[in-house]
User: What shape does this take?
Amino acid sequence: MRILIQMLMLSMLIACTEANKNNQNTGFLDDIGGGIYVHHGEHLDIDTGYQGDICNMSVVVGAKGVAVIDTGGSLKVGTQLREAIAKVTKLPILYVINTHVHPDHIFGNSAFIVDKPQFVGHAKLGKAMQLREEAYARLNKKYLGEDAKGSDIVVPTLEVAEPLVLDLGDRQLTVTPYATAHTNTDITVIDSKTQTLFTGDLLFIERTPVIEGDIKGLIATLDTLKTYPVKQVVPGHGTQTKNWVNAIENAQRYLNVLLTDIRASIESDIDLEQTMDTAAASEKDKWLLFDIANRRNVNTLYPALEWE
Ligand SMILES: [Zn+2]
Assistant: This one.
């Protein structure tokens, strides 16, 4: 049965990869309606095979200009995004928003410097980018090779400490910062025209959620997102959905199982290494890239939860 399910997951993964290949053929951006375009990155880890194009990048076109939400993991990917936007609209790019500090979401920023937009991010994003600059440069060089060149840190010019509204003319984007959850730099964006919520990596769909910040904070933040009066959600990774409450509850189920299992391990003196193999095992067949992401989550969370 396990093998059958794994084969099924593998064929799903291949189907996703095929869909992404088709995207390349039909254009970099998918038109999801209402003046919103999304590029869906491939479900790959930041590990061997990482090519800088694994997250969702979104484009919101208003009457006055354009907002970009996340720019991909390299100058090359950011440039592809910018060229694809130029095929959709000639309006100026007013805002480039980063949902958080992770390298797969921010290193396309440099492609947009020429547009002189406001670079928008969490109040803690600039500092977090600078703290990680060297480590991320090494990581990009290791995995991206030539594509790492010119993929530079671009810090926010507009830092968000309280919810704020960006005006695109006929539509407004509300940018909301959060306490530590997926990272310590998470924001969401809500588009007034379509009631679309862009979650960044507060929500993963299809692939295993990742926690670098605070698992309890993330579960609580997802509770907050569930109260928003929105019609559709674009996650940080995975397909946009109108069945978004269900998607959030799937992520919360995984996070709660993971938290419970790690706490039980600590209680029973089961060490970190063994817990990496056993925690949240009941979720294994429900998510892509489970083994690598789940092990990493345990590795991050176990030491912090030992001090609860
Ligand atoms: Zn992330």
Summary: The first strand starts at residue 30 and ends at 33. The pocket of zinc ion is lined by residues 100, 102, 182, 201 (CB under 6 Å). Confidence is low (pLDDT under 50) at residues 13-26. Helices lie at 2-26, 75-88, 103-106, 125-144, 215-226, 244-267, 272-278, 290-305.
